[in-house]
Design goal:
By secondary structure, this protein is of the alpha+beta class. It has 2 domains: about 30 residues; about 110 residues, Immunoglobulins (Immunoglobulin-like). It has 2 helices and 7 strands, in the order ααβββββββ. A 7-stranded antiparallel sheet has the order 1-2-5-4-3-6-7. A hairpin with a 2-residue loop joins β1 and β2. The longest helix has 29 residues. It holds the Pfam family FixH.
Amino acid sequence: MTSVSKGFTGKHMLLTTCGFFAVVVSVNVTMAWFASSSWSGLVVENTYVASQQFNQKASAIKAMVATGVTGAISLHDNVFTYKLHNRDGSPAQADEVEAHFRRPVGDHEDFIESLTLVERGRFEANRHVPSGDWIVELISKRDGVVVMHEAQRFDTAGFGQ
């Protein structure tokens, strides 16, 4: 017996079409997963203006990093603490700190809090921070001049809230 090849049939077309759409759907699902798991959700009001200011802001941040001043945050029993210190570990000089609390996505729970100077290099605010992920932008000033401007992302669960 000899077998006769029928060529490209309707069954082949169905399998080809199903395979094509399976690839398209799987690529879209993969890309959507990567986008939702890696995008911070931060949005600027005017992207053109933000792009024009990027290099200037990047230079200012590099200059601040070069000073060696760093900060550390903590949250315990509704007390938010920010410790500012020099490269050698000594407390850094600042007389005011303003904290801008933002959710990574959405702005309906965002708030601004002025921290109180407790001791040199240590600032606190007695404020309930709702549970979940937050980005806190901290602006530290001494005599009206910014000495440190940083943003830290944290989850309240990481502080045992």
